[in-house]
Amino acid sequence: xxxxxxxxxxxxxQVEGDPAxxxxxxxxIDRAGEGDITFVANKKYLSRLKDCRATAxxxxxxxxxxxxxxxxxxxxxxxFARILTFFHAGRKPVSGVMPGAExxxxxxxxxxxxxxxxxxxxxxxxxxxxxxxxxGACIYDHAVIGxxxxxxxxxxVREGCRLGDRVILQPGAVIGSDGFGFAxxxxxxxKIPQVGIVVLEDDVEIGANSCVDRATLGETxxxxxxxxxxxxxxxxxxxxxxxxxxxxxxxxxxxxRVGNHCTFGGQSAVAGHLKVGSHITFGARSGxxxxxxxxxxxxxxxxxxxxxxxxxxxxxxxxxxxMRKDLLQLKKKVEELEAMLKEDGRA
Length: 347
What we know:
The chain is of the alpha/beta class. It is built from 4 helices and 40 strands. The strands form 6 sheets. Strands 8-11-14-17-20-25-28-31-34-37-39-40 form a 12-stranded mixed β-sheet. Strands 9-12-15-18-21-26-29-32-35-38 form a 10-stranded parallel β-sheet, with no helix packed on it. The chain is flat, with a radius of gyration of 28 Å.
């Protein structure tokens, strides 16, 4: 439990109501009851407060709700995330290397790390302080895992790859799988050795069953703070900037460069060897087939176009059958008029 005053201090908000009110849980607005705190991050949900039974509500400035305990903050959604973390993100006690884990003698595991049964850790691996490796995690030779990392079940870090601090790998994430490189050899293909590595900088998160391929030569790099959803593919020698978001089933082909703070909607894709600037958002199923250098854009569609143009195009699509019918009728009328003009000319 925590008082409303303590939670407001945590999120740098202001209390309106009784600061000594005790809060036990965070709950959604339609299920919250006594002892719960909920949040409203969008004005369209304000009407739901009428029937909400929460003890306190996180709101943005300017909202007046009579008879409610409030925490007022400029970013209610962020405040919700911080309070939820406060209540639920307590770390488990350090357990060290537990029986059933297979750890090479040359590996250096910090005493404050936890390695669960079923983990396999190769030669000369380094695992930093407070990192947690869940059952089935597999770390190949010479890989480096920073401090405060969490590797969930069956995450894989291949040989030589490096993870910074506070990196999270969700179940089944694969870091350092071979890049997709093959040289044509007549009717066959010769596999090109993939001898580079992957570097994940601090605070990167990789979603379940997502893959970041190792470089052919050099490194594939995902820079600080970038968050990658489930089922995302990042190709060999790609460089993704800081604080980017890649939503499920997005794909970045080999050797492309992405700037800072870009967002890729679900199933969007970037072709190989392209350059994408900073602060660009790509809508779901966008296809980037050429360089997009100018920053601060919102783009959608295939072929790629500014999002507003794409919206107008998609609004037109359902009308195409009727428009085709009208065009055929107009064509017929024009042909009839041309025929009449020719007859008049002969007369």
